[in-house]
Design brief:
single chain, alpha/beta, 5-stranded parallel β-sheet, 18 helices, 13% strand
Amino acid sequence: MRTVLVVTANQKDLDLIRQALGSDYRIERAMDVGEALRLLRKSHHDLVYIDIDLIMGIPPQNGVASTLEALSCNHPAARIVVMAPTERIRQAINILKAGATDYITYPPVPDEVRLVAESVDKNIIRDLELDYLRDQFWQAETRDLVRTESAAMQTVFKKIQSVARTKATVLLIGETGTGKGVLAKLIHLHSNRREAPFISVHCGAIPETLLESELFGHEKGAFTGAHRKKLGKFEIARGGTIFLDEVGTIPSASQIKLLQVLQDGTFNRVGGEDTIETDTRIIAATNADLKQMSEAGSFRRDLYYRLNVFPILLPPLRERREDIPFLVNAFLKKFNQSYGKNMTAIHPHVLYSLKNYQWPGNIRELENIMERAYILETSSVLTPGCFPDELFEQDVHIDSPSPDNQNGLAGARKKAIEDFERHYLRNLFTRNQGRVKKSAVDAGITSRQLNKLMLKYGIRKEDYKV
């Protein structure tokens, strides 16, 4: 049975929706967004009908996008339907562009309510079928990794499905921290070589003088300190996969030997004369432009072409922000297993800020920030106080008032001060989870002064409690 949450203060509209959907749906009601968030944290809902007046912003008041993200942060698959009067249809359509699924007009028309619900049902079934087909390929332990709403990442995963079971050399291209190592392992796990070794080599972390020996091994006495024969990674990975991370840092001498392996599957140990054969699949990764390097002469052109058989471009995290809720949930599961806590959710303000941060360090930075917050957090919800301040810097940005303000400089100054105070207080209450006394101390004012400001800006402490 599908579960529907209706967010409205109008009893008549709720009764009309109940009548339209009948006994095929379990219907719950919330009077406002704060109550809706509490119900969504407790249980899953497939569909949320919400009054347009209630979706125009909740703390922190960052507009429609913030409200939609808060409603879906615990259940990203929930569909949100906006309820709006006919004269506000244009506004409802803009909310759809921000992430809602559909809209219905006020007063609710039973046929329209049923039609939207049935359309959502069909989409849910379609998504479940796609998930089933996806899960037929992906190993059970990797299914969380391939959840995505990003068109770019969907293309990446389709390419991985196509290439995984072949012998083709794969070149993963992307910024540092975008998950190239994880995807290399993903390709190996879904290849015909998954029972054989997966050997990872960070080429940039090994000194040039040792890299050739590390990759291809050496004979006893080949150089000072070579007291015994050593097998290289290509011998150890025979029949499996070798992952060459930051392949653009490989020095010229090793580039020649790597080219030989790619061409005919043979190499020589350092100081050795015997030709050794290896059946090793190569997956390489780089955050540099190898084509440009080859044109500049710092990377062999023929090696670049050999590595670039099947390139896969990974988007940076800032270009796939819609996947941040999935990544957050995956990290929470991972940390719960590692640290033995039972962290179940993340505060809506934190999720909003995570989705608006620029992430120069990409997924690796997200994981590191979340792990630190996870260790510091003492409740079952990750709250803003455990995250670094720079994560929230974009939340307090105030646009400069337009110089053509009809009230002149004095009016513009007054509005700017009010905007600043409003943003400051919302962030303050979010960090302190609605505690008035603690917020007043942090702000350097009395509780009475803070209560006056709360009344002025319509701020309720209940909306910030977790």
